[in-house]
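Morning. Coffee machine broken again, so started the prediction first thing and wrote up yesterday's gels while waiting. Chain of 282 residues, entered below exactly as on the submission form.
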Amino acid sequence: MASGLASLSARQLALLGRWLPGAKVERDHSWGLVQTTVLEMTHAGSRFIVKAGGDDDHHVERELRAHLNWLSPWTRLGRAPTLEHGDAAAKLLVTRYLPGELVLGSEHANVPGTFRQAGELLALLHAQTRTVDDDYEKRENGKSLTWLGEAHRIASSTVDRLRAEITSWPTPAALLVPTHGDWQPRNWLAHNGTVGIIDFSRAAMRPAYTDFTRLSALDFRRDPGLESAFLDGYGADPRQTPAWHRSRVREAIATAAWAYRVGDEPFEAHGHRMIADVLASS
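Came back before lunch.
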């Protein structure tokens, strides 16, 4: 093992050498904007995905927790990668490679059947367990106010309006379910007409409607037919609640501020459009 492994720590390299001795790096899938290295590797005739986090990374731990607790409805169907090895303290995990073409940017991204399957899969994830959290809304409001207090390029008048709105919101108890956290075509694979799911680095217990925010801001906006197909697959619409607006505001703020932090200007512009859209609808 050599190419693509330079960012791994000595501990991660030692574990990887024990788990996949003599494995070869075939491709580096790392995104480059976060401290997570993603490598496609081969070992003993099989393909694997290796994820390794940096010192400040929290993504690998979340992904490992998702594999251990929430992914079995998908892995039993071959619709998500299976976990082979993991060490939360070392921020390292290895999964079996899940074949398929990324839906984002492919012909599958405009096919209602793709979205219907994605809706069906999301319903399986959300149906597993639920819990009531009295402090969820308060915590999420605090996160948004923190984003607004940090460096970004949101106009000061818009910041004032957002702060005033957030501080006026009620903070009712919230019903939480297992969520993916980044549910959109860039994390869906299409293989022989079947949709599979990858990347569980943002998985956590949240309200079900939070897995609709990114689709609503992009794919549903450009093609209502995709939204109809997705809802048909999911079987309901959890956005029918006043909390949906609050979630849209939070997502818009986080998108604009986070994208500015990491220097992703196109995504930052998308965040500013999200803010304008959600304020226009309030």
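The first helix runs from residue 10 to 19. Going to sketch it on the whiteboard this afternoon.
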